[in-house]
Structures are given as structure tokens and as C-alpha cells.
């Protein structure tokens, strides 16, 4: 799978993953996936989009829904206690979007992981039990998110 990474450049989005159909010489088609992501220097941007944050976001979304066809109910941006929480308009299994996009993203700071003396900023991601409305969560220790593990305590609230 190709992964395209830009250095301190933003295109139409900070990043995305997608699938496209490519023709084969025998007249059939093959479905291929790829990721586009930005590497943004931490001194230039907010930590929520710095360094590996966007790559972390897109890689985990691709891993959970490579063909963008895993449908879930339309969910609200967490937490419900934030008056800015609104319907996402997103019915795909996008594990990074609930806490990495939308009006409440500043409620979820990145998780800083030092690697060889360099601070890497990881977005906190929701896990399947959050989308699946599991109470309690079947994930390890009853978690709904990772790697922070303490940001979410209840599953998704759904839009009507």
C-alpha cells in the first residue's frame, strides 16, 4: 500500500485514506488503497496535528476501514458534556475522527510519546466498543479509547 507523506505541506486535507479501482490488462479491475498524510513540524502547528499525529490518525483509520465501507451509526463528537458536541455526519468506522476532528477536538490533547529523545504526538483513538455501544467495554480494562485510556468512559452517543 502506498503512503504519501508531505513535509510541512497541507493539501486539501491534513491527511486521508481512500480506495480506488484500477484497470488490469485483462479488462478486470483491482481495488487499491493508499494514504496521504502530512508531517507538520511541532514548532509551526498545534500538537493535535504535529509530527506523527496525522500519520497516526490515517494509519489507524486505514487499518480499521481500508475500503471505507465499515458503516456505523451517525455519532456525536464526544464528550456529551461539551456544549459544542454535535452530530458528526460520519457513518464510517473512523477511529480517529471522534477525538481528532470536529468542534471538541481540543478536549482531547495528544498523547506525547518520547522516542529516542524526540516527542511524538499521538492522537487518542476510539475503539470498536465505543462505536458498538458496549457497556461495559469489552476492550482491555474496559477502555473506550487508546492510548490515553481515560478520556472516554461511555460509548458513543448517536444522532437521531
Detailed description of the structure:
By secondary structure, the chain is α+β, with helices and mostly antiparallel strands. It has one domain (3-146). The chain contains three helices and seven strands; from the N terminus they run βββααβββαβ. It has a three-stranded mixed beta sheet, covered by helices on one side. Strand 2 (15-23) and strand 3 (29-39) form a beta hairpin. The longest helix has 12 residues, at 53-64. The radius of gyration is 17 Å and the shape is globular. The N and C termini lie far apart (37 Å). 32% of the residues are buried. The mean pLDDT is 93.
Question: Which spans have pLDDT < 50 for at least 5 consecutive residues?
Answer: none
Strand content: 15-25%
The Cα radius of gyration reads 17 Å
Number of helices: 3
Given helix and strand content, the structural type is alpha+beta
How can the largest sheet be summarized?
Answer: 3 strands, mixed
What is the residue-mean pLDDT, rounded to a whole number?
93
Order of strands in the sheet with most strands: 1-3-2
Distance between the amino and carboxyl termini: 37 Å
For the record, the count of structural domains works out to 1
The total of beta strands comes to 7
Q: What fraction, in percent, of the residue positions are helical? A: 10-25%
Question: Secondary-structure element order, as H and E?
Answer: EEEHHEEEHE
Shape: globular
Amino acid at each position: 500500500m502506498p503512503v504519501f507523506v508531505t513535509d510541512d505541506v497541507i493539501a486539501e486535507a491534513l491527511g486521508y485514506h481512500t480506495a480506488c479501482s484500477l484497470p488490469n490488462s485483462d479488462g478486470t479491475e483491482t481495488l487499491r488503497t493508499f494514504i496521504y498524510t502530512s508531517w507538520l513540524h511541532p514548532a509551526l502547528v498545534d500538537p493535535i496535528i504535529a509530527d506523527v499525529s496525522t500519520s497516526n490518525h490515517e494509519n489507524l483509520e486505514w487499518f480499521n476501514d481500508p475500503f471505507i465501507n465499515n458503516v456505523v451509526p451517525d455519532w456525536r463528537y464526544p464528550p456529551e458534556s461539551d456544549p459544542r458536541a454535535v452530530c458528526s455526519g460520519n457513518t464510517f468506522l473512523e477511529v480517529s475522527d471522534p477525538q481528532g476532528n470536529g468542534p471538541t477536538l481540543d478536549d482531547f490533547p495528544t498523547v506525547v510519546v518520547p522516542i529516542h529523545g524526540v516527542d511524538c504526538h499521538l492522537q487518542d483513538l476510539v475503539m470498536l466498543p465505543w462505536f458498538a455501544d458496549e457497556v461495559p467495554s469489552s476492550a482491555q480494562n474496559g477502555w473506550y479509547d487508546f492510548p490515553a485510556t481515560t478520556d472516554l468512559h461511555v460509548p458513543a452517543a448517536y444522532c437521531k
